Each structure stands twice: as structure tokens, then as C-alpha cells.
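Internal ticket #5521
Category: modeling
Description: The requester needs a full-assembly model to guide mutagenesis choices. All entity lines are attached below as received. Residue total reported by intake: 608.
Assigned to: D.W.
Attached entities:
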Amino acid sequence: MNRANKTSVATPAAAMAAHNGDFMATQASQRQSAAAPEARRKMRREGPGSRLWRVLVWGAMIFFLVNVALMIATVTMNSFATRWFGTPLPEGFTLHWYAQAWRDFQLADVLWVTVEVVGAVVLLSIALGVPAAYALARAQFPGKKLAMLVFLLPLMVPPVTYGIPMATVLYKVGLGGTLTGVILANLVPSLPFVILVMTPFIEQIDPNLESAARIFGANTFKYFRHVLLPLLVPGILAAGLLVLVRTIGMFELTFFTAGPDTQTLVVALYYAVFSTGVRAPQSIDAMAMIYMAITLLWVLIALQFVSPTQLVSRVKEAPKGE
Amino acid sequence: MTPAPRADGRGWLVAPALVCLVAMFVYPFAYGLFLSFQPMEGGGVFANYLKFFSEPTLWPTVIITLKLAVPATLINVGASIPAAFALRKSTRASKFVTMLLVIPVTLGTVLIADGMLTYYGPNGWFPQALHALGLYHDEVRLTHNFWGVLISLVISGFPFAFLLILSYVTGIDPTLARAAGTLGAGPWQQFRLIYLPLLVPGLTMAACLSFVQAFSVFPSAVLLGVPAGATRVVSIAAYEAAFESYDYSLASCVAIVMGFVQLLIVAGMLGARRAFYSGPTTGGKG
């Protein structure tokens, strides 16, 4: 049935093309003749029902995406709504909630803390992670396997599981609730992430460069500074952006370790949603919009340098710019 | 310096990162384990664990979490396989969809919970649409119950599983399946005999990561569920012990149990994979 359908569609198209002007016709028929064996092969490969299957898969996919889009649209709509209850659209629109959210949730302070935490985590995880990745890629040392395991585990164990013992230790040594504590906690998933992104990246850099630099008298530091670092810039950029996006959204660890003055935006948003009823829902959604705008801005920037799969997990392939 | 020790010397570059992670990850874990055997209220060494497995507010949390995490993992991984196959060719449409799917992952569970509360809430667009289309006439209850949490696990977990599995699927050389097609294999046979065996390691990995992520559900179980009842998951029990009753010893015990259950399930899945298929663990060009 599938085959009959496809050929009957293809023939009138060719006939129509033949009726058109000379240039169009020749071009179209050329394309037609080139595409025909491909289409026939495709038909043979896909049995009957495969079209139904494809419609089903795409349908489910579109249903999912539409729901996510509408969910985001709900937040957007509500943040501008004067009053919205049980109707398709709100009664009116206002910017009032943004001003109120800014005041009510002390967003200036929260955003500053977020910038401090995210900035420190990105810089520290690169400063500590890149040398470690270099050592793992190039050096042989006792306990290398064990070191690898220590770097892998924080990525496998979810933050909730290790977050509670970690918060316990931080509170015991007096770092609980401080900015340092929040930064240290966020380093735990970020640092291994940088190491595992950078190790394959360093591995594919020609080791002869190092030998050449050493012949000219460079020590490890000089080699690092003048040879390796410039070559690593694309990888470091990619790793840094990935850590940035992940740290903005890292809820659990920050939630467990932050005090009232050291909340990042996502934790402040959680508290706001948690205590719905205390504040107007539109005000909470205005804050959610600010969070969403910041996250998506960085996601868009990050996607210029990394593939979408890298945002999800550590990479198998080296970052772009290889 | 002679060359040999210098090669070892470069290994020291790993030290700062290692010290940081040992201090922040390994030591807390060890300390938590140690602390869990020192119950705050006295009793024997195992008092916390005995309490966990006898208290009706504690042990059922493991069952509740499994009831959420297992279906969520099955849905997310199960739906990702056909979706990844549909989008494995790098066309503009598939790139666009992949790009869109990144959004729910990066936005995080807190924002998804906030959006869901309005969108799926009793007066949100979703129930309104269901009523308008005449698909459902009673009151739609999708928030503040089990379903709300499950939906949020799918919204945040499906894109995650999909992107992981997509990277595995695209890593498989399509000429292998085409060769099978030339020899007369239909699409199902190609999938069953060519793709699936090569995909099994990747699928196991994706299933493990999806499960572990779903098992540690926290913010959405509080915001979208019934934190005192039907969706009282393990992480809520651990959080309450640590930050509401300040019983860090019991909290560590709960965290250790949580980690142990995850380990058990992941080990089970990896073991099952070994029983199911043994061969090269990397799919692809070989």
C-alpha cells in the first residue's frame, strides 16, 4: 500500500515538472532521475506500517514539545497577567509583577550571589581541572586508576545522595551557609566534569609539541603557558560554558549548603514556589521568567560551542574545534 | 632531574583537584557512613538502620521512590529509543527538535515544577484544553499527587535520556544496517539484530543514569507532590532528618541507604546487561 501510494505521488509530480518551463523541467527531471533509485531503495527498506510508526513517533514528540512550550508560555503569560483564573487568557497585562518580584525576593542580592557562585565555580573548576586533565592524559603515576574513580563517582552519584553528608561536614567545620561553602559544594560535580571533558581534548594534542618545547628548554609551566594553553582555549571555553549552565541550574547542593544570604537564583525560586500563597503567583512567575531568561541566554551561547548532548552528560567526542 | 621521575612529577598536577574532591566528596561520604553508626539518641551501633527499617515514616519512602523512579525510567528510555531513531539523521528538523529538547533539561526541575503548577493545575491550559475538546469531563487532577511528580520526571528526564541515546545511536555506522538491508533484513530485523546489540551498552548506561536521577527526585516531589504522603520520597526523609530535626546521624543513615539502593539497582542492570550480551562494549565502526 505504501509503495503504491508513493509511486502514484511521484508520477504526477514528474508530469507537472514536464509541463513547466524548459529550465525548470530539465532541472526537476534530473533531480527526479537521481532521486528515483534512492526513493525506491528507501521504500524497499521500510515495510508497510513504517509510515504509521513514524507518524506515531513524531506525534508523540510534537505532543511533548507542545506541552513543554505551553508550560513555558503559561509562566510567561502569568508573569504579565493582571488577573488570570480559569479563563483561556488573562484579563489584562501589566509589568507590575517584575518590579514587585525584584523588591519582594531581593533579586539584586540573589543575582549578585549567583554571579559570585557561578563565576567562582567556573574559574576554580577550570584552574584545578585543566592541570588534572593534563596529568590524566599524559602522565603515568601510581594510583591513576583510583584518581579516575574519584573523578567519575561524583558524576554517577546524584547530588541529593552525597549532598546531605557534605552539608553535615560543611556545617561541622563552620562553612555551612557561607559563600565559600556553597562554592566548594558546587565544585564537586563541576570539577570532575571539566576533567572528563578536557582529558580527551588534551589527549588528541600532538605529544611531539611537548617534546619540541622541552628541547628548547621549556619546563612544564612554560610549556603549559605558551604551548598547551593556547591550543586548549576552545576546549576550556566549552567546558567553562557547560559548567556555567549546569551551576546556574544546580539546585540540590546549593539548597543544602546555602544560608539565607547565600541563596542562588534557583534556590530563591524554590523557596518562592514552596511558599505559594505568601506572594502572588504572578510575582513568582516573574522571578521564574528572570531565571529562565538568564539560563536560556547562556544555553544559547553555550550551544554555539558545544553540541546539545554535551549539556546532558560528559562527552564521548571531543568538543568542537578539534 | 632524570626523565623518569619527571614523568611522575607531572602526575602531581592532579593533586589539587584530587585533594578538593577527597575533602568534599570522599571524606563526607566516609564521615556520613561513620556518623550513621553513631545514633544521636544512643542505642546500638545499628540503631539508626533499625529505626529506618521499622519506622512507618521511613522505610516506605524507598518503595514510594521506586514506584516513581521505575516507571519514569521505563517511559524515558523506552520513548527515547524510537525518538532517537526517528531523529538520527542530521536534518534541519531533527537539529531543531534536539535543540528544543535541551531547554527542559537546562531549565531544571524547580522551574518545571513552577510551570507545571499553573499549566497542569485545575484551572490551567491543559485541563481547559481537555474540557474544551471534550476528552475528559471530571476535574483534572495532575498536580499535588503522584501523577504530577511522574509527569515532571518525564519532562525533565525524557530529554536527558533522549540526548544520551541519540549520541549512542548516531555513533553506530548506518552502513551496517544498510548492509543487512541489502541482505533482505526488514527494519525491525535491522533494529533487532544490528542496532540493538550495539546499543545495549549505551542503553544500559542511559537507563542507569536515568534511574539514578529519577530515584533522587527532590524538588518536584515537594512542590508537585504530597511531601507528607503519596510522594514522600527518600530524599525528603533525608532532608527532614538533617534540616528539620537536625539529626545528622539519622540523615546520613538515610543517605547511605539511598546510595545503597541506587548501587544495588545499577549493579543489577549492569549484571543483566552482561547476561544479555557479551562482546565489544563500544558500538560503531568496528
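Resolution: model delivered.
Comment from assignee: Residues 1-6 of chain B have pLDDT under 50 and may be disordered.
Ticket closed.
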